[in-house]
Amino acid sequence: MTVSRRDLFRTIGAAPVAAIAGTAAASGKRTAPPDALGLLYDATVCIGCKACVAACTAANGLQPDTAMSGGIWQMPEDLNPQTKNIIQLYRSPDGAESSFMKRQCMQCVDPACASACPFSALTKGKFGIVEWEPSRCIGCRFCEISCPFDVPRFEWAKFNPKIVKCELCRHRLPDGLQPACTEVCPVGAVIFGTRAELLREAHRRIDANPGKYYQDRIYGEHDLGGTQVVYLSHVPFAKLGLPEVGTESRAHYGEKVHGVIYKGMIVPVVAYAGLAFLMRRRFKVHDEEVQRGGHEEQL
Amino acid sequence: MSTIAERLVLAGATRRDFLLFCGKLMVAAPFGLAITEAMTPEAVAQIVGATRRPSVIWLHMQDCTGCTETLLRTSQPDLATLLFDVISLDYHETVMAASGHDAELALHDAMTANDGKYILVVEGSIPTKDAGIYLKIAGRKGTELLQEVASHAAAVVAIGSCSSWGGIPSSGPNPTGAVSADALIKDKPVVNLPGCPPNPYILLATVLEYAATGKLPALDAFGRPKFAFDRVIHDHCPRRPHFDAGRFAKEFGDDGHRQGWCLYRLGCKGPVTHASCSTRHFNEIVDAWPIGIGHPCFGCAEKAVGYSLPLFSLAPINKATPPAMYPPVETSRGIVEGAAAGTAGVIGGILLGAGYVAARKFDAAPFEPPSEPPGDGGSAS
Fold first, then answer.
1. B interface test, pick of A57, A72, A147, A160 with most B CB neighbours within 10 Å
2. Which positions in chain A touch B322 (Cβ < 8 Å)?
3. Which of A69, A100, A156 sits opposite B323 (nearest CB)?
4. Chain segment B177-233, per-residue pLDDT in tens
5. What's the per-residue H, E or C state across chain A?
6. What is the pLDDT of residues B283-296, one digit of tens each?
């Protein structure tokens, strides 16, 4: 898909209209589509072999990040433009408690990145996968800033930079393949399926092992408006870097604030009118000073 | 011509010996071969037993006879069984009893008896410089001999690195203009089995596959059978966990070396060498292969690695995989990459320069008292 000049202007022109009309739409809570696909990562099962990290890099045509190891190992410190999927380790200071953590895009039900993206380069696509369309991206990196999970990464070092994030191996799905990470996982710590199936399976595990999982809760079932990648863990989710900030999605919250500001265009009109009034008065004072032969050069 | 089973019965081989041999074959060729796809040694024995003994003619070119030596080291079956009952080795300069005219007659007879059906095994590279005069057998040049015997063969197997890609004789300065067998034989299928030497069971599996099914095993872009050469040694190295954990021997005989740590820092070429040594050791002795006895792999099976890269130089890692270490959940953000830092520096520099020029202009403006020299405003502020 390419964006013509005409499309661009149309998008710009439509923005204020959408802002006025869109407040009603934003107030409704988004839900996952019935065929939403996702992952279930069970931190109690993961053995930290990082087969998923290597397979992800290969399946997505990325160069392994070997900068930290002098070219010997694929050794990313964090998600980065060469790493869409990473295994990290949490260990409590006394060493008594530890857990692996797999990080990749959470495929939010109501993604903040898509809401923040000014040109809809990031959208909720087929199967609810958050897709990135390069031809629409202007490189503003609002997605990077808005993501509550700190996932999208911008290729700062490239001449023609891209936004890099997991798209649930959507290029593999038409061939009947599952995402590379779930395909290679030797212990089934991360499994692939529809969101409904995965939630059912997670609930089954919780019911079968009462007290094993943190708060007997699935992270992502309701958190931040729900995510399609969901987590089970024996340590507090916050320790694994999953923010505990309620069930409202960032996109919903942001659009609510925008809804107030732009409702009926009253606030912008009043603000612009005030500014215009101030400027007019200032010009008037200035003109009078010039007429009196004042100190124009000192302005 | 009799089948392998009939010959083995005549020779008094036990069923157990034969099953052991078939088990070895299955280890040598776990997949990618029709004859070893069956799940049990018994099933493989059925197929191999019913196969007619393939006629093999073995030619020596510029070689060290190391590949022959490796064939002599097979013990399941032992050499006599192998030569007389499993294959029919009709001409081999090292192991045959005949010499002189008798030997040449044997070659002629073998070629006529099995015209178009025998398998030609070539050991050693072929000299081509100065019209190929650097190798002569029975008055004929190596190039002529090879062309003649190959033209009547069903298939050609190049055993060893020399005949597969040139090997030692072809390494610089290559005084004899040594080339591989497939550089000269264009009208016959050529299977390359590089290695110095290769594992003999790879040769046996290839030859038996051809005899049993009439087809050569699947080959890669360099003519090597995929069943033995599809992965690098590093992929299945017994010392791989030490590599992943960062435990390297730093010099021969140090603590790490004594404890069997990874030999990468000593120049191991395992990460760039396609061969199956790490899973199929030699002479049916566990750990009988270079890395197993504590010496880094030197890449004998890989063109442009063996006899080309310095023995103790670091090999490039083409397929970097994760180490056995983990980044913490909380990581510091903001690793500044070179280009980004450069761009920021350039922009910052432009702003600084613009600021300086602007300051100079302001200073040069005539609202200063005329007694001060223009352009020297820095001292005034």
1. A72
2. 50, 53-54, 73-75, 87
3. A69
4. 999 999 999 999 999 999 999 998 898 889 888 888 888 999 999 999 999 999 999
5. CCCCHHHHHHHHHHHHHHHHHHHHHHHCCCCCCCCCEEEEEECCCCCCCCHHHHHHHHHCCCCCCCHHHCCCCCCCCCCECCECCEEEEEECCCCCCEEEEEECCCCECCCHHHHHCCCCCEEECHHHCEEECHHHCCCCCHHHHHCCCCCCEECCCCCCCCEECCCCCCCCHHHCCCCHHHHHCCCCCEEEEEHHHHHHHHHHHHHHCCCCCHHHCCECCCHHHCECEEEECCCCHHHHCCCCCCCCCHHHHHHHHHHHHHHHHHHHHHHHHHHHHHHHHHHHHHHHHHHCCCCHHHC
6. 878 889 999 999 99
